[in-house]
Every structure is written in C-alpha cells, then in structure tokens.
Amino acid sequence: MATGSHDRTLKRPQTGANAPKLPQQKPEAKLAHRSVPRNWRHKRTGGLSWSAIVIILIASGGLAGAGWLGVQLIVNPQTLLWINRLLPDWIPIPVTGLKPPQTLDDIRRELMQAGRTPGDMLPLGKNISVLDHKATVSDVLLPVLKRRSHCQSDCEQIVALRIYQTLPTHQRETRFQLLDQQTIVGPDESFVLAPLINAGDANQGSTRSLPLMTLQRFEGKVPTQGVWLDLSGRWLRGDSTIAYGQVLHYNPSRVHLHQMLEWSSPVGQEPLWRDVTGDNKPELVIDQTVGMEPQFQLYQVKPRNFLASPLQLEPLSLLEPAIEDDTYKNGLLLARSGLWSTGLQWLQSVKQRDRTKQWSVAAQAQMALIQLHAQATQAQANKAWASPSQQVLANLIDGRWGRALNVFTANAENSLETTALLKADSGRLQSRVDAALRLSPLQRDVRNWGALLIAVRQGRNAAIVWLKKQPGTTMTEIARVTALIARLEAPLANNASLATLPPGQLVGVADVLTSINASAWLKPKQHPALKLDPSQSWYRVRVAGFQDGKRWRVNEPLGLPAKTSADSLWKQLGLAADPPLSIVLWLSDGQQQTVSASIKAVRMNAGKLELLAAGDVLAPSIVKPGTTFRPLAFTEAALQWQNLGTMSLSDWVQQQPAWTASALPTLVRELKRSGNLPPNTPPTWDTLESLGMGSSPVQLATLTNQNQPDVIVTIDPDALNGQTTKAAKRTTSRSRTLIFSSAGTLLYSECSTDAGLTYLAIADLGNGGGSTIVANGSGNYSLLRWSTKRKRFE
Q: Is pTM beyond 0.90 here?
C-alpha cells in the first residue's frame, strides 16, 4: 500500500531511555536544512520564510507546538493545508505533493493491490475545504484492514486510519482527497492484562500488540469539541472476554486525529461518556472491575497548549485531597482502601458542615468518583447470593462487618465456605480492616474479621495475641473471637446439628441487675454454674421480638409454652453456647454506647421471655433511675444498623423540587401542630430556610418496599432561630423526626400521630425482617415496620 511521506503511526508515546530524540536544533534550523520545494517558500509579496511562519505560530501553540509543527512540515506536508487557515489571505502557501483525488473504486483498487481492504467509511461531519478554505465539504475516516494469518474468525484487523475530505464536484461519483494517514498499533498484552494481574505474579503478560478490530463514534452525551472515537478489540481469555482499545479525538479545525489514551476492561465493557460529577460536562468512564471488586477509571476533558490537539483526558485521582480537612483526608483513605460507602459518608459529612465554603469543584468530583464505586458495592451487598461465601464477601466489600458475621455464623457450611474465602484473600480484605481500625479502632465487628484473617494465615494463637493488643479488648470479646475461630477449624461433620438450627435472633430491652437469684433462671444442663466475672455486670433482657424460623414476631405474644426446659428453649430460640449479645444505650446527644455480653440463662415470666446476660459494664454516669432511654439488647443475627448517608434539607430541596412542592406544606403544618413554628408561618421554602431549617439532616432509606427510597427529616427545635413556642419549650426540646414517601406523602410524624416516640435509627431485622424503625417511647423500644395493608408503621 502506497502511503507516501504522510504516513504516521498512532501508538503510545515512548518515554525513558528508549524514547526517540528529536534533533536539538531550533525549529528554524530543522526546517532550513531540509530540501523544501522552492515554490513553498515565497509567494506573491516577496515570500515569507519558514522561520517567520514558525514564529507566528508560536503565539498560538507555544514552543512545544512549534517544535511539533516543524517536524510535521518536514515529514507530513499536508500540515500546510490547515496552516493556511491561520495565515492572512496575502500569505497563502501552496502545497505540492498531494495525491490526486480518488473515487471509492480507486481507493479500493489501490488498497487491494497492497494486500489491504477498505472498511466502512465513518462520517466525521461537515468542514471547510482545506484546499480553497471556502467550500463546505465532508470529512470521513476510512479504516484500512489487513487479514491476520492463522486466523479462523474475525480475522481482519485495522492497521491504518485514513482521513479523507470530499471534493466539490459536479461529477456523478464523489471524489476524495487524502489528507492524512496513521498506522495503527494495538496495545500491548501486558497493558490489557494489567487490571487482572497482581504485582507479584510471575506472568505479567507479553509485549506483543493485540489487534484492534472495530471503529465507532461515541454517541449520546459526549463532549462537544470535535469528534470522539473508540477503536477497540476483544480477547477471549478462559471463560471471560476482555475488551480493550484506544480513545481517539478528531480535531476538524486542524484535520488532526490524535490518540488520547489506551484502555482495557476485564468485564468486557466499552468506555462510555456520562456526567458523573454533576457539572453537566461528561466524563469518560472505564470499568475495570475484577470479580466483586469495583474499579472505575474516570477521565475529565482538560485543555492543553498543543496546536493540533488542544485537549487531553486527565485521570481523576484520589491520592491528593481536594481540600485541606482531616475528615476529608480520612474519607479518601477509606475509599482508597476499598471502603467506598464508608468513605462516601465521611466526605458527605464534610460537605454538610462546610461553613467556610471551602467545598470545591475538585472535591465534588472526588466524591462523585467514590459514590460511583459505593453504588456498585451497595448493590452487591443488597443482592441475594446463592453462595454463602459470596454473600460474606459482598458485605465485607461494602463494610457491612456485622452482617457478614451473621452469614458466617449462620451454620457450619457457611463457616467453612468463608474459611476458603479468607484464605484466598490477596490483601484487599486486610486493607479494608486495617483502614477501618486505623480510624475507628474500637469497632468490635471489624476486629473480629481482623482476627479471623490472621487466624487463617497464622493460626489461633497469633490472632488472639493480635486482638489483645487492640485498645479496650475485653474478656468477653476474646471469648467471642475464640468461638469464631473455632468455626473456621471445625469439620462439617461435627457441626451437622448446628447446620439445622437458625441463628438466634432476639431483640429486647435490658436492665442492669445488681444481683440475681440463680434458681429463678434456666440454663442448659451442660452449661457451667451462673458466675459473674468481677469486671462484668448482670443484665436482664425482656424480649420484645424474635425469629421463630418462619417470621419475625415483634410486639406480640411470643407463643412459647409457660413450662419448658432450658434445653428446649435454647434450641427453639436458635441459641448456641454463650450466644453473644449487644447492648446499646443512646445518650442524650444522640450518640451510642455499646457493650458486649453473652446470654447465660432464660426464663418465662408472666408469659414473657426474659434472658439473663453477663457483659461489660455500662458507664455508671449514664445509667440513672428514670432515664429517658433504656439499653436495647439484641443478638448479632437479629439486628444490623443501616449506615444511612446524610445530606442537608437545603440540598435535598434543591435536588427534588417535585417532592418539595408536595411535602413542604405538610411539614409546615406538622411543625405548627407541635408548636415548633408559629401559626402564621407561610409554607414556603424561603421562609423555612430563613428560620434555620436548611441545615436539618435528611436521610434516605427504603422502608415501604417501593422502588424509590423514603425520606427521613429530623428537625432540631434549637436550630429554628427561636421560633419554637414557649409552650413547646416547656413540654420538650427534643428533635422531631418526620418520614415522607418519595412522592412527599407523610408516613410518620413525631409532631402528631407518633408524638410519643423518638426516632433513633434504621435497622435490618435478620432473616427477611426488612428495614425497621427503632424508636424509643415511654421507657421502652418500638420496632416499627411498614404495613402494606394498613399503610402505616406498626
């Protein structure tokens, strides 16, 4: 195939010692010593030297652009076609050496003679003729194909791209002027495999180039500057297909085609343009997810000082924080370690309390990239997996440590599958554990997983030694971890009976006991006598609900016989030896204190089930007679707190105008009813924002089993700029929570129908119990679930 002096190769720039060196002369010298046709140098007005031309163009392209231009004028005379556009009409530069215009048959014949075939022409849009700078013509891109040897199917690869421009003609057959041609070289195998290969693997892939087979324009919402193209190929490796390719940009004003980047996707996804950051400027998203580990590369279009191709794709990085804030930096650390959802919550908290207005466009972009990953991990964690180990992994990846423990301890088979999962960890799970404990070292569930990871690699003793070095470790926690490690080691045959029992799922209200009557409690025969460690306290737990294996029985008769043995109760409740229990107490400022305990005995008292537990001591200063909040007790399999992201009411109102129009009048009416707003307050957002409600927290949670999440709004009376009435202040100064549907319908109101309750949190009840409101009322706890039949929480 005759390519002439204008043939160029489109491949990755080389760097380092092997990079090609340009001659170290000034641009004028590089052009002067070449044999340039005489009729290129002067025209009409006495002529213009190449030095003068380059000096003129330095102003628009800089030194680097002028250097590139000097080389192009030597090796690719067609560059003069668009340079003429930059010069005044009295300085035209005639171009010689162009190939004669051709018809499609001429082009096909030429390529066939060279052993190539033409692909389908790709329109690049209308342009101004580079020959006369007046006529409107069309630019087209022609792939040049070559058949691969020893190939069975899909054998034609793209080896060159030609840029043609149609010629104005009155002839029946369109003629095309060749403007540029670039040789195409595919990415190296090692580059394509990079997302799949660990740094320590012996086989990092070869340097052979993989073929590029398909050329297409990006469609949809793409940047408006020029034409964006995707040159791609696919590689079947084992049972998976890896997609790879190059992103090209065509600049019609310079008739220039430029490779912007190479890409590969282990999940076989082509790159796509989408507005991720919310600035109405699309970013290029490349999906490099491997297995259940999401990994997205995000590129933003940025300007650069390069005459022929003034744009570049700049990767969005999470290494450097966009703002100087410790919480923000910690959020990035969590995200880089794979805890995307947790990291997102940290960044959202920074944005919500941003009183200094330092939140920037760059910070929003970093948060958007983290949110893109968090959406993927959350979707995986919410999915029902057939394999227990996949269920455990999905929860661990999303930072749902407690829920992952529930699956692990559900039965012996789950435990053994999880053992294999932990042994196969390449370091990603360990990285998550390390990051979580670095920022919050007292997270018990995280420490449990840290100990399990050490146990599968170094044994039980090493895990216990590590656990004892953690701050605030208790004997109860050590006993709990020892039992968990035993599940890693136990053969399946020895746990056959365990596999048939549902895990204990109980919720109730706890009281601190100063002493007990051991004879009043029932314990299994094999259990030791009821004795208390000096560092612990006794707790009585009055069970409010439990899972009977078929459904949750909450706030209703439990249906247990009055006279039954401890062994029978133990089995019916799904309790193992010393089943662990969490005891949580909400403080007046909304914070929680959590201690660990274990169930030692049970009894029926006036038809109600009670548990006796021994555990760590709650701080005496917060356990006072007549306190509003009492400790809530639950087994790990029963309850898992939902980590809800928080935004300000002001942000939510701006994002959801339809919801605001529906919910705002109801919100104002309810706050008037509770005395938190004066009776004459108009139901407008400007009014509420002026009263200080813009900073009120908003959370989203799926409570009514609809496709869209419900909206939880909490109003602090102290933040209403003194609008709370005197009567309301005398009654209570507590926060009021209201819950609306996604359409703005009121579902729950502590200003009226639910005035006796105080919203605390949203939790998932285990084994299909669904999302539940945990609320405090009259010294007791209520677990409220949505009734589809009655259309209310009960």
A: no
